[in-house]
Every structure is written in C-alpha cells, then in structure tokens.
C-alpha cells in the first residue's frame, strides 16, 4: 500500500497518481482490484448515493458509515475521507475531534478539507496531531452557494493569483496533496509546477500530478447528467435496466422461478404429507 511519502515520490518521478471515489464495500473492492493509488470517500456520496442535491446535508455519521464499508472492501489501499460541511470550521478543537473520529473509527488514512481561508490553522493542527490532510481548492462544493454555483474557478488573473497563493498556504500548513477542481488547465499546470506536494485534478486538465473522478460518473451508474469534465468510461445504467426489466417481466409471466431455480421433494415425502 502506498503512503503519503510515496505520493510525493510519484510527483518527483512524473508518475501520475490515480484516485477514484468509493462509498461502499463493492465499489471499494472493485477500485482496489483496478489498482488505483488512492481511494476518496467523497462527500459527493450525498449526491450520488444518498440523493441530496448538494453535499451540505452530509453528516459525520454518514461519512463514518460509508468509510467503514470502504475500508472493509479495500484493506490494502490508501483511503482519504472528506470532512463534511461545517465539521472543520467551528474551532480547532472540534476539527481535531472530528478528524480523529474519521480516522480512528473507520481505519482510513487521511482526511480532506475544502478551502484555505479560515481553515489553515485547522489543517496545521490536524497534521501536528498526526492526521494527514489533503486540501481541496477551485470549485469547492461545500461553498458553492458562496461561489455562485458550480462553475469554473480562477478564470481571471486576480482569482488565479489568489488560488496560487492559497495553494502555497495549504502546502505550508502541512497538506500532503491538493485536489484542484474545475479550474483552467493552464492554472492547474502552474500550481502543480509551483508546489512540492502533488496536485490531483478533477476538471483541471492533464498537467496535474494525478486525477480523481467520481465512481458513479466514470461508470454512468445511477447518474444521468454529468459535468463536462467527466469522461464516461462505461454505462452500467443500461445493463442494470435490462436486468431489472427482465426480472420484473419473468415474475409477472410466471417464467421465474422455473425448475432450475427451485427445490423439489421426493414423491414419497410428498405423499406422506397427505397421510
Ligand atoms: O466528494 C468528492 O467526490 C470530491 C472529489 C470530486 C474531489 O471531493
Ligand atoms: Na468532496
């Protein structure tokens, strides 16, 4: 299993870091079998697994519940868990208690937090306490309401300069990696070149040190509309719909279960029933 130091080495060696989200036992097993470098138990589970229309309603309990299942399915892969909305803002003490729960109760290896302003001292405290931290800049879904929706960030010079500054501040605070979401590829390349820690892009072009995508988006599983930056590598909605339709139809038409899927008793035993 790779550890934080290995991800720094991968950046230095120019080897891309492959990260994908997982939220339960089967998806964790599958992504481990696919030999990804890192799993993210993203709070995107609010959208793709729990059916909310943002990540705001996701709780500590939700994250712990899902991270435990992921750990059971991927014992040999580095696991990062998102700290949910408002779990790392109130005070350093609250942040430490929440960060500790996410690691201790689930067996995950690191936490991820969005943003820089107001969060840097919390990143520092987590790292000092022994909890590795991944930062997340650009489109940060937990603050989408403040950013003015889900749109590309850092397009103009001032915003781009600010993001470069924030990226450096996250690194200085002790983050060992940085997720960059939905920013121009040129800005992502610039940030990646200026940082010692690896960047992991989603909608940030090919020049980040790694890539991350949401499991359900890669596989077109349960989702129908995806962002521009998502490449659908498979569409499992189709076989799932076909399988379910066939089951429904065979039950209604008394075609299932036929003898192949049924148990029988001997004739004598059957006759004995009527004695
Ligand atoms: O929650 C999530 O899936 C994420 C990734 C999109 C980076 O934070
Ligand atoms: Na997230």
Question: What this model shows, in words?
Answer:
The protein has an eight-stranded parallel β-barrel with strand order 1-2-3-4-5-6-7-8, surrounded by seven helices. It has twelve helices and eight strands. The chain has helices at residues 4-13, 25-33, 45-48, 60-73, 92-104, 120-128, 144-147, 157-173, 185-194, 215-219, 237-252, 267-272, and strands spanning 17-21, 38-41, 78-82, 110-114, 133-138, 177-181, 199-202, 210-213. β6, α9 (185-194) and β7 (199-202) form a beta-alpha-beta unit. The chain has two domains: 4-235, TIM Barrel; 239-272, no CATH class. The longest helix is centred in the middle third of the chain and has 17 residues, at 157-173. Sodium ion binds next to loops.
Give the tags.
2 domains, TIM Barrel, binds sodium ion, elongated, binds 3-methyl-2-oxobutanoic acid, methyltransferase activity, 8-stranded parallel barrel, alpha/beta, 12 helices, 275 residues
Number of helices: 12
Order of helices and strands: HEHEHHEHEHEHHEHEEHHH
Low-confidence stretches: none
Give the ligands present: 3-methyl-2-oxobutanoic acid, sodium ion
| Name of the CATH superfamily of the largest domain | Phosphoenolpyruvate-binding domains
Note the beta-strand portion.
Answer: 5-15%
CATH-defined topology of the largest domain: TIM Barrel
Which structural category fits the helices and strands? Answer: alpha/beta
Q: Given the C-alpha coordinates, what overall shape results?
A: elongated
* Major sheet details: 8 strands, parallel, barrel
CATH top level label of the largest domain: Alpha Beta
The tally of beta strands, per DSSP, is 8
Beginning-to-end CA distance, first to last residue:
65 Å
């Amino acid at each position: 299993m790779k550890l934080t130091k290995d991800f720094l080495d991968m950046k230095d060696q120019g080897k891309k870091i492959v990260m994908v989200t997982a939220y339960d036992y089967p998806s964790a097993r599958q992504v481990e079998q696919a030999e990804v470098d890192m799993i993210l138990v993203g709070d995107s589970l609010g959208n793709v697994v729990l059916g909310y229309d943002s990540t705001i309603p996701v709780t500590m309990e939700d994250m712990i519940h899902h991270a435990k299942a992921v750990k059971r399915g991927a014992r040999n892969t580095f696991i990062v868990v998102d700290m949910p909305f408002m779990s790392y803002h109130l005070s350093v003490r609250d942040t430490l208690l929440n960060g500790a729960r996410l690691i201790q109760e689930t067996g995950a290896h690191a936490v991820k937090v969005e943003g820089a302003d107001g969060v840097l001292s919390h990143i520092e405290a987590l790292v000092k306490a022994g909890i590795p931290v991944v930062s997340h800049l650009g489109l940060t879904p937990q603050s989408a309401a403040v950013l003015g929706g889900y749109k590309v960030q850092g397009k103009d010079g001032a915003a781009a300069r600010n993001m470069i500054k924030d990226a450096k501040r996250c690194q200085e605070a002790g983050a060992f990696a940085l997720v960059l979401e939905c920013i121009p590829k040129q800005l992502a390349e610039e940030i990646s070149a200026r940082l010692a820690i690896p960047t992991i892009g989603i909608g940030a072009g090919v020049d980040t040190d790694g890539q991350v995508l949401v499991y359900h988006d890669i596989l077109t599983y349960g989702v129908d509309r995806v962002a521009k930056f998502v490449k659908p590598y498979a569409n499992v909605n189709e076989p799932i719909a076909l399988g379910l339709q066939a089951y429904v139809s065979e039950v209604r038409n008394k075609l299932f279960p036929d003898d192949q899927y049924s148990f029988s008793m001997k004739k004598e035993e059957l006759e004995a029933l009527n004695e």
